[in-house]
Amino acid sequence: MGICLEANAQTKAQVAGKVTSEEGEALPGVSVVVKNESVGTVTDSEGNFSLAVPQNTATLVFSFIGFETQEVPIANRTQLNVTLKVNAKSLDEVVVVGYGTQKKVNLTGSVAAISSEDLTVVPVANTTTALAGKLPGLIAVQPSGEPGRDNANLSIRGFGNALVVVDGIVGRDFSRLNPNEIESITILKDAASTAVYGVSGGNGVILVTTKKGTLGKPELGYSFNYGVQTVTKYPRFVNSAEYAELKNEASTNLGGPLIYTPEEIEKFKQGTDPSYPNFDYYDYFVRDYAPQMQQNLTVRGGSENIQYFFLLGQTKQESMWKGGNQDFATYNFRSNVDAKITKNLDVSVIFGARKEDRNNLVQDSYLMASWLQYSWPIFAPKTPDGKIASTNYGLTAYLDPELTGYVQDRRNVFEGSLSVNYKIPFVEGLSARLTAAHDLSFQDEKQWRKKYLTYAYNADTKTSSVVGSRETNRILLTDWKYAASRIQASLNYNRSFLERHNVAALLLYEENEDRATNFSASRQDYVVPIDQLFAGPDLNKSNSGGASDNGRQSVVGRVNYDFEGRYLFEYSFRYDGSAKFPVDKRWGFFSGVSGGWRISEEKFLRNKIAALNDLKLRASWGQSGSDNTGNFQFLTGYTYPARNYIMGDNVVSNGMLPTGVPNPDITWEKSTMYNVGLDMSLWNRLLELEADVFYRERGGLLTQRNLQLPSTFGASLPFENLNSDNTRGFEITLRHSHQIGELKYHIAPNVSFTRSKWDHVEQRPFTSQYDSWRNNTQYRWKNIYWGLKSVGQFQSQEDIMNSPIQDQQANATLRPGDIKYDDYNHDGIIDANDRQVIGRGQTPEIFYGLGLDLSWKKFSLNMTWQGASNFNVEQQHFLIQPFANGMNAYAYFMDRWHRADMTDPSSEWIPGKYPSTINDGAPNNKMFSSFWLKDATYLRMKFLGISYNLDVLKKFGLPSAQITLSGQNLLTFSELGPIDPESPSGRLSYYPQQKTYNLGVNIIF
């Protein structure tokens, strides 16, 4: 053994040295690794290193965040001094902007972007959900987890729906694009950046760029992910015994009798008597887990003359509702080819196709959630002999498509564009580009509803008899067609003069045309339930349809200039024409200007502060417009068909009604935005900062005058450009990247704030000073709740009698535990005059996110946290009232005020979190107040991915293989308890959000 050890020791050699930057500064923490080996070290605080390496070692690899990786041959040396160069790619990073690209370092507007790597960490069925928490200023809230309807609501700076542009073409939907076919997503936030989109870009712009080919041999990739979904949060219901107990209290609290005897409640608890079941309808309706799958096949490569990218993708999700074939599947195809025809002529062909198939129950998911709330645990869904029970309205039958019907939705989308770019040889830097695009979408939906019977069971005869029915045999077929054509012709100029003056210019003409049609037909009362239109009777058949056309012409221009990369300037404009306005107001001119000062490039700073790599101050101003209104409001319009008239020969003919008074002065809504930003990079990108402050004011917002017209007037008032508002806010992003030996990490927190206020609001005249104070929204913040302020709950009857009157009956109807309100105007009476601001609205004002990427040897971890604050959720309806409108009660209502002995009115009250229970709820406790307004602040682990690179597969000729364990919505911290903080309202009538777990493999050949 000693001989072996000696021989091993003799194979080692000691190599030492120092690593510095080009400025001669020592670089601590640089990774020094033997190439193709796991032997390595890091430099100390002085940049020094010492490493024992095998004698046959040829090369050391030096790597550090912000610098180019360098391979250095040892060449029998024992001393190596290495100088690392700053990574020039960080300075040359290109960002997609409107109708072009720019170097990130030269941007003067407010822009944020993410790459494909950020989108594919966790497999998502809807690309919009992958953006949450990743881009400062982009608000992404997912109100539903339903397959096929799980879009996140996206807005930039809270301005409303942003314009989406895919591969330079406006109006395309990117939610169902496969994340693996996307190269990058960029958001344009300030008006100077969005001015080139004019009327459409007032709320910000989302630019999506799909992948293209690369130079090199063909690269074949395959990925497969399989996962399961489960509900994030949803409140549970009371069981049968609790239901009976609350029903008894609801009756006795009003002096009524017991509904259920103690013996019956005991039978509910035991659950052995079929006449006294304890049925959990949540478990009956909702699956524990539902599978999902995604797989993709890609080919990428190319030569000097042609480059290509192809993708075939499939995503499939099953529903969380039990029963039947409920799923959503998407099939994606992508073909992007770029060819160099001649030295000056390039051609690009982009084609994407998508097929979407959705199978569902005949009831929409939000109705299914409502049916769940109508299901009482004291009744079973079926009779002992297997018939649909008439109890609980027979609603559980909807889980059986064979019994009640189904919905099939099929959609096919085709998107193609052809671009030709020609470099004009006799003018240096000048090129011409022509792009033609055509998109088609075909969608058809089939709803088949079947009549079904409900039964009552006779325990004596042990048989069921029909007591009613629901639905009718009915079919509804709907067909939608959509076509869009886009033409763009542009001149582009890009040239540098005297190596100091850099000029870029764009002049573009664009023409857009959209056409849509729809048609539907239905028949009902089928004698034989055959799910085809022709099989139905002629009686009560119906059909309807519609069509719309829209067009727009635009001229776009932009000029960029920079002097030595220090002083940056941009001016852009768009001249838009819209047929929605009269001829003399049809055209609008919208422009933006921005400037930047790279202070770090000034002689008084450059190379003077070693830690400072980049410091840039940005400012912008811009105007945009909106034509988001109905067509032809400047003309007298009619609704057709509106009324039926009997003409000659008793023929029934369609009639018309006027739609409203025309407004010949209607025109664009206009907005003006100001933005100031700061970009800074320190210690070779070890720390980066981006910060923006913005202010937007809008005028000419369309609304109708608040006037009362006599019913005989026969038409409505026109929309006029009357209202105005403003919005202000800020965004801050920090990025920290570092490497410690083989451990590399990147941390990127971001936070944004936005808040809006009315400037002018068209309102009715106010009748009093109080009326003006309470209802005048002019110059007030938007997104606030007005209501009664809760000051707790009554603790005793004495407390009730010594408090202001709040039931209009000398407090005679109140009980201990009822909600107690603030007498805001101190008049001794609680009424509408005591309403005050009690909280923020339902739209968050603060959004924050945190991205964390770690890699160590063959392992990597990617994590995204996302959250929001400064908003409230209003609990409504059955969330504040057990048994509202015949519904069930949630389990949390068991924590309520109640008597020690419900049959003894003199027994003591036991305190609880919620008021006591009574039938149909107490009016006092249902008043809108801060008691039911919940702070909805939350923090959620949106994505988590843990990957391992499988080097063992290299022996099989696989150069790259990776296995990944990932999840979405894994952790949520919130004070809302069983309510998901991204839920659309406080009513719970929606498909719940999903938590997912996935296992995937990615192989590249």
Automatic annotation (TrEMBL):
It comes from Adhaeribacter aerolatus. Its main location: membrane. Belongs to the TonB-dependent receptor family. It comes from the Bacteria. Pfam families: CarbopepD_reg_2, Plug. The keyword Transport applies. Residues 104-205 form the TonB-dependent receptor plug domain. This is SusC/RagA family TonB-linked outer membrane protein. It is a multi-pass membrane protein. Keywords: Cell outer membrane, Membrane, Transmembrane, Transmembrane beta strand, Transport. It is found in: Cell outer membrane. InterPro entries: Beta-barrel_TonB_sf, CarboxyPept-like_regulatory, Plug_dom, Plug_dom_sf, TonB-dep_OMP_SusC/RagA, TonB-dep_OMP_SusC/RagA_CS, TonB-dep_rcpt-like. One of its GO terms (cellular component) is cell outer membrane.
